[in-house]
Amino acid sequence: MWRDGALLVVRIGEKFPDRCVKSNRPAHGRRVQQAAERGYAALFLLYLWSPIAAASVGNYVTRQVTFAVGLSDEWCRKRRRTLGMAGAISVVSLAAVAYGTNLIGRGVDAGMWVVSLGILCTLGSLLYGLNASTLVAAKRITNDCFWLRGIHPDFLAELPEWRGELRGDLPSSLGVNE
How many CA atoms within 13 Å lie on the side-chain side of 146? Predict the structure, then answer.
């Protein structure tokens, strides 16, 4: 592992140390599985034009990596609380959709507003939960390494600097390129 400014550079398959990536405190063996994916911004435009073509192309040009990061008790509680809150809001929102549907069935005009609000709150809570469960995000993924952002500065400070002349590639002595 190396640091590249505010990014963490990790070889694919390398195990993370037993320290929290968010606070640099001991993780006590607690690991959280994370998945990172990196595609191209132009794929979004292709999705707007043709979702089927974008899905086909996206399977070939998007890179994915799975890894397990250490997480301290404090960050584990924080993450669990946030995900619990998102789940609770989703349940209440879905109940509002059911109640609104019942109101519509009885001819109450406000039922449509209750259903609409319930659907918006459900989608919002799902997006919030997805965002909250992501501890770190991939900035770049190559065949051999991946770059992560969102790592605590003290965690990065203990690592050697990624050599500037090799930015983006493994050392040429390994015979590996992107």
Answer: 23
Asked whether residue 143 is assigned to any structural domain, the reply reads yes
Pair (66, 147) in one structural domain: yes
Q: In this structure, what are the phi and psi dihedrals at residue 137, rounded to the nearest 5 degrees? A: -125, 145
Number of domains composing the chain: 2
Same domain, 119 and 149: no
- For the chain, how many residues are written? 178
For residue 107, what are the domain limits? 73-134
Q: Which residues contact 93 (CB under 8 A, 6 or more apart)?
A: 118, 119, 121, 122, 125
Distance CA(175)–CA(177), nearest Å, equals 7
Joined together, the tokens standing for residue 89 give 């809001």
pLDDT tens sequence across 1-50: 999 999 999 998 899 999 999 999 999 999 999 888 776 666 677 777 78
Write down the pLDDT at residue 98: 94
